[in-house]
Amino acid sequence: MALANWRLEGEWIKNCNCAFGCPCDFNARPTNGECKGLVGMHIIKGNFETTSLDGLNFFVTVHFPGALHEGNGEAQAIIDERASPAQREALLAILSGHNSAEGTLFNIFSLIVTTMHDPIFAPIQFAFDKPGRLARAIIPGVLETEVEPIKNPVTGAPHRVQVVMPEGFEHREGEVAAANILSNGAIRFDTKGTHSTLAHVVQTPQGVEA
Hints:
The chain contains 2 helices and 15 strands. It has helices at residues 85-95, 105-112; strands spanning 6-16, 35-48, 51-52, 57-64, 73-80, 113-122, 125-129, 134-139, 143-148, 150-151, 158-159, 161-164, 173-184, 188-204, 207-208. Strand 8 (134-139) and strand 9 (143-148) form a beta hairpin.
């Protein structure tokens, strides 16, 4: 089956309830036995076939009862309300994983998520500063998350860690930071001082380009 022609380039955020370092990136089990978190993106430049996706934002909240590869996950997409009907359809088509090659990020999610909650279309405020390890997203009544540098426990100075994954299917290089998350959608959770990764990514049907 021919895959649709799409491309997403932009600012990527992954926040979860695990300790700094995200065990998933190391093929380890979640810190607390289960995974609750989110991924999100501000699309700097993107398209799905002839539909432009430039400037839009999306988030997906997730919950897995164990390690991600064990499946039985649930997810909910949150799409920028500014998206036109065609853009909403395009983003949901990408997130479905049906337009991605085997082993790529969205394809893998389609295999391990068994419950997909109805999407939410809402205003999304998104600020992102990868070098500063700072980010913030506000989706009123649905999701709020803040990211800041990890602090040295003795001096309080910002602590910097990068994760490089030459064969990563989510990103190739990311800044590790600390996140607070309050999720009030279908997947509800509240965390403080847990893991965050900030990255610049390019996703295509064949996987990560950068």
